[in-house]
Amino acid sequence: MSSLTAEKVAHFLPLSGQLPDIQGRIINVTHQIPYNILRSHQLKRDQAPPSPPKSPHQEDISLEGTAATDDPVAAAPISKLARHHKRGVTLRMKFHAADWTVVERRGHQALYAGIQSLRKDNQTIHIGWTGPIREQGTRNKIPPHSLATEDKVKLQSLLWETGHIVPIFLEKESQGHYEGYCKEVLWPVFHYLVQTSSSRDSRAEKRYWDDYVAVNRRFADAVIDHYQTNDIIFINDYHLLLVPQMIREKLPDAAIGIFIHATFPSSEIFRCLQSCETTQVGVSHKGTMVSVGAFPIGVDCNRVHQFSRQPGVELKMEAIRDMYADKKIIVGRDKLDSTKGILQKLHAFEAFLTNHPEWRNQVVLIQVATPTFGDHSKLESKISETVGHINSRFGSIEFFPVHYYHQDIDRDEYYALLSVADLALITCSRDGMNTTSYEYILCQHRKSEPGQLILSEFAGTAGSLGAAILVNPYDYADVARSINGALTMSVEEKITRHEKLYHHVTSHTADFWAHSFIKQLVSVSQQQDLQSHATPNLDIQKLIDDYKLAKKRVMFFDYDGTLAPIVPVPSDAKPSADMLDALQTLCNDPKNSVWVVSGRDQAVLEEWLGGVKNIGFSAEHGCYVKPIGATQWTSIVDGMDMSWKADVTEIFDYYTERTQGSFVEHKKSSITWHYRLADAEYGAFQAKECQNHLENAIVSKFPVEILVGKKNLEIRPMSVNKGEIVKRILAKNPDTNLVICAGDDKTDEDMFRALSAAHYQQKNIGSPSALRVSSPTSPVSPPIIWSEPDSNLYSVTVGPSEKKTHANWHVNTPEQIINVLKTLASI
């Protein structure tokens, strides 16, 4: 697994948005398509005839504003009058049975802008739920099952012509999926809100989970139905966490990426889910190589610039300036939920007025709380109570310091607020990518004295907007000091900070986000040196037949995870009696050369397996060898510089002291730090920190390498591995007819790779995936060490069939390997 950020890959991607050559299409998958769908049975007589649908590569943004000066809504700074939102592009096509109207959705504009930007240079399709289908002019929902097949086909045709959109029609399961599992279960978890058992209905959660699985299956099936070779699949958000696994089961070679528009929770939070293991498998899918990166989403700068310069915005700006003349304006616009920190913002503002009395009657906070899904009546009540308290304490008949609006606001009002503000205050306690901060920066750019941005350190944008004033929203005194500092800041500093923020926002746009993600996905896909065809189950009968015919056989077996199961305490992995008996029987056959090639040290191998006669050992991943019949060990690392061990020991001891449950294992030529018994998340975090420390302090100075194993880190001399040992052994047995090699982890892939390369010019054994990575250009370039023309290779990995491997067969468990040994021993 690799870790990288958008900034690290930025230099590979020109800001013009060019992508590497993509052979297929990009399949964009979102929970909902970017349009609302309305149906009316006939056009009114005074309506214009329908226009033909736009080309998929054309873009049309309807810039509608409130320009009429006699409009009471336009004349008010923020109106509480009933309003009808104007929503951009309308495409209408009349059919015989129904007239469909497709209207651009409000919200999620950054997501849709990024996805649509991919259409400029690539063929794309967009798969998503239709959302609720309604009768035009009403709020009445139309159940998809009530639509005639002809109507559905016509709607599908319109959406395809509109933008290669593939709609998914969902029935009652949509409620359990979205309103149930996504909003009541996943959303709180992704925002670090742990529900107590008393507030959680486990039976309801199980029903929601069933709907979640069913909807994810519908999405996966739609992708599979439309997939073509070389297509790139781009899935978005936690609504569809299971889709990657479901697609991978049917399309093992597909390039699949999923972007989560929220901070992924820690293991301590995530495991509170009833279905946490299944959900995680849906992302990782049994050993699939995954590249994990941070790709902060941006906004559509051109769209924001156009919307913020509409005549209706100017009217609103003038109205706001007139109402708050000679006042500093602080703006907050958040959804009404507990993670947005509106209460914390109000308490901090109260602390600001308390600690800085010179600003009383000079500053106004305009807070807009947009309604959102769920019952937030208690929160709204507390907010209203706090607003009343502040206004009664610091206000007067003529002036209130807090103006609170619990409502949606028009687009003109929104951009007007962002444009006239002297300060934007965002105090979320947990948030994903807060695009309000980006839009505020863009709206401030025309001002000679741009306003400042105070941003919660818990916002997803905090890591990208370093020139903002970062605060802990729970530290009211600090937020109060930051407000005072922002309002009293010199003009020069304001301009300097703003220019840095503006440069980041305009260079890391929604287009840049989408192209960065796709570019990295393509890069990872192209770098895969292993195909992902399922490795077939070991053909026992074929192995038996080849075993009987072979005149000389060489067998290599890893120990941990192969001849014995992985256990939490390494010293508990002692061999079973059945395994020892089978090994001894195989070693007694003069046609066989049996080797155990392990990461264990000599003492352990001697203690556990030394009673087996005529067996060969390789210890510490090939550093020490004890040939068959020998009484002494041979060191492969004699003369190598081992001065690094003292420094590595010091580093490992440092992390052991700070990671409960971890310990250090010392071997003659290597040192291993185990953290299997530590807390899963913290152990992995410490391992990554330790690995970075080792790379900087050790690997850069000494000829060693880091082996990242199963819950362990091992440092060993470079150029010594299991692959080199099996090549040496095989070179001494060039007339071998049959090679059997079994292992389970990354170190065993060295053996599989070496044997596959050595066997490349021989015939394969008929396995569907045999020698899948062998080629004349393989990174392994061995000498001729295996000259027997009539030979067979059985490289067997222990693990699932989907595991990426150089082996050509697989078994699921170490017990199956032992059964294979027993079967061969009985021949």
Task: Report what the structure shows.
The chain folds into four domains: 192 residues, Rossmann fold; 207 residues, Glycogen Phosphorylase B (Rossmann fold), CATH 3.40.50; 203 residues, Rossmann fold, CATH 3.40.50.1000; 53 residues, no CATH class. An eight-stranded mixed beta sheet has the order 22-21-20-19-18-27-28-29, with helices on both faces. It has a six-stranded parallel beta sheet with strand order 14-13-12-15-16-17, with helices on both faces. Strands 8-6-2-9-10 form a five-stranded parallel beta sheet, with helices on both faces. It is built from 26 helices and 29 strands. Helices cover 38% and strands 17% of the residues. The chain is elongated and about 100 Å long. Helix 20 crosses helix 26.
